[in-house]
Each structure stands twice: as C-alpha cells, then as structure tokens.
Amino acid sequence: MAQSSPDNRTLDWTRGISVFTSKLAPAGDIGVGFAILTVVLLSVFGNGMVLATSYRRRRKMMGSELLCVNLALVDFLGCVCFYPLSIFSSFSHAWQGGYATCIYYGLGCYIFGLCGMFTIAAISVIRYIKTCHGFLYGANVQLLCVSTWLLATVWSVLPLFGWGEYVPEPYGLSCTIAWRRYHTSVKDAVYVICSFVCFVLVPVLLVVASQVMILRKVYHISYSLTMHGIHNNLKNTEKRLAVMFFCISMGFIVAWTPYTVVSFLYIFHKQDTYMAPAGFVFPALFAKSSHVYNPVIYFYFNKAFRQELKVMLRSLCPGMVSNRVEVLPAPVNQGPVVPAIQIQLQELQQGRVRRADGGVGGRVRGVISLVKSHSHSEKSCKSSSSAGKEGPLCPSCCIPKSRVAPLVPGPGSVHEFLPISS
C-alpha cells in the first residue's frame, strides 16, 4: 500500500496537536456521541424490522422491493459495524485505534455510502423503464444488487494502493477520504474528481431525471383515467409506489447533499481554517439520518409490509391478539331487493391455525352474511303460526341462516350454521 508513514501524519503541524484528538469541546463530543447512538438504535430497529418482514414475504417480493431490501441491509450493517467506533471515540474525546481503525472506518463507510447511492440510482432507473416504457422483463435484480456491492468495493479499496488515502475528519472523531490530497499528486486528483463526478454527480442526475419522468407519467395516466371517469385500484397503487420511491430517492440525496458540498469545497483549501470544526459535524450527522427514515417510508407507503409486520408482531406477542367485529352496510345487488345484514368478522386467534390446504396461518378472517330466507318452508311455517298452532320451534330451514365465507376461499371453506338466537 502506498501510504505515507504514520509518524509523519500523527501531528497537525498547524496546531501542534494530534490529528486524532477531537477539535470540539467536551460537551460537543458527548452530544455527537449521543446523536450517533440515537441514529444507530433507530436504524437497527427500523431496518431490522424491514429485513425480518422481507424475509417472511421473500417469495412475494418484486424487483424494486428487493433493491429496497438491499438499501435496508446497507443501512443496518453500516450502523452495526462502523458507527459504534465513532460513538466510543466521541465519548473518549479522541479517535480510538489510530490509523488502523481509521482505515477500517473510512473504507467501510465509503463502501456502504457508494453502495447506497448505486442502489438508489438502480431503483430510480428500473422504475423509470418499467413505468414509462414497460419493456423491462426478466431483469436479474439479484445480480444487480451484487454488482452494486462489487463496484463500490473496488472503487473504495483504491486508496489502499496509492489512489487517495483515508484520514481523520477535520473535527477528529471520524475518518473519510483525504479530499485535500487533490493538491498532492495527479493520481490523488484523478481519484477525487472521479469520486465526485462519476459516483456522486452522475447518479444524482440519473435519480432526479428518472423520478421527475416517473411522476410526470403517473400524473398523466391518473389525469386521463379521471377524465374518462375510470376509478380503479391500479391507479392508486401506482401513485403510492411512485411517491414511495420518490421519497426514498430524494430523501437520500437531500441527506447527503450538505456533506457532499462541504467535502467538495474542502478540496480547494489546503488548510481547514476556512470552516470551524462544527461546520463539518452537522453535515456528517445529517447524512447519517438517512439510515433512520427509510424504514418509516417503507411501512407508511407499502401496505404489504404493514400487514406482514402485524402478523409477525402477533406471532411474537400473543397478548396483542384480539377479536374485532365490524358491521358493514349490505352490498347493493342487481337482482330483487332482499333484506340482508352483512357482518365482517376478523378473528385473531392465539397460536397458529391449520388451514384446509395444509398450510399454517396465524389468523382467521371471514365474512358472515346473515340473510333472511324466503323459501317455501318459511311460508309454511308462517301459515302454521297464523292457524294458531303452537308447538316446537320452527325447523332450521325457517330460521335465518348464517353463511360463513373466508376471504381466501378454498375447498370446503364455506359453511352454514344456525345463529344462537333467532
């Protein structure tokens, strides 16, 4: 590795202090540590739920959802593998581990940052092709996810071979690419410029252009259907998907833009005196916030994720199980008017139930329709009562029956039973 000697880099000659010593006040170090700790806890919880939910419905996932899972994996592993080192250094008021951990932290965070950027760009481009042109068939999304990791890793390891370097941040509690080595050599200048142009500017332009075209296409389709008086669920579903991926993409860009701008301006200054150390801290913390709100976007816009999460929570916490009965108005029939009462019953049972097809489920949902019978037997029952005959209860054919039909019908899944009281 073409790295300079650590002994020559340990001291910041402009201040006479170690580059690994925090340049913030002790209270600022503690605040940074708690801020990163909060990000880690929220991200691990949120992205962990996304990964667990995705694993449960792995056979039903679409290509774009798999890329979102890849993004959740990036956020989860980044918070688990690297941020604890920054938290410990913040509470210690100095970077811990020297250049070995600095290279580990800088390399890992750069890999995961580039992988997240490539994943966002892939999501936007795939959604654009499928929405605006509709000819993307048989795309190997798994191979695309692996490619994002490989490309990010190959570009990130180049500083280990002399193309750039990983050094502490100006405030001393984190490590990143040595952006100021742009002035050192041609190789470093090429690496820094390509990092910004090819791996930041180009992906951002692809994301913005794709999302704008997607929203424009969805708006025109929705407007056309509305003008023709067509109302369908497909239109609403496509709009929700478009808004979800737009929020994910633009949220990532907005979070990382301040840090990118500060780093880019840092190139043109040979010394870090143009900005106070706190000026580097806030963009870095704001960029880390992107790990937190992506899971919120998933569960807010994706109904399938929410339903799967509820099933998983009920299986883990049986005490959350409850029965819910909802009374719905009777549907409008095209035939003769028949008095009817429709009750939707959602029974959430403790434990797991065995379905007719041999599978195992965690809940039973069904629709109970209580419809008065107008058969010949009922008429005979009425005539008997009008004649003054009193006897046992009317036969079961005269009593209103309840027809139970599960929401997912199957063989032998429809039953009739008598109500408790008529």
TrEMBL record:
InterPro entries: GPCR_opsins (IPR050125), GPCR_Rhodpsn (IPR000276), GPCR_Rhodpsn_7TM (IPR017452). GO terms for molecular function: G protein-coupled receptor activity. SUPFAM superfamilies: Family A G protein-coupled receptor-like. The chain crosses the membrane at residues 30-55, 67-91, 103-129, 141-163, 189-215, 241-268, 280-301. It is a multi-pass membrane protein. Coiled coil: none annotated. GO terms for cellular component: membrane. Keywords: G-protein coupled receptor, Membrane, Receptor, Transducer, Transmembrane, Transmembrane helix. It is found in: Membrane. Its main location: membrane. Residues 46-298 form the G-protein coupled receptors family 1 profile domain. It holds the Pfam family 7tm_1. This is G-protein coupled receptors family 1 profile domain-containing protein.
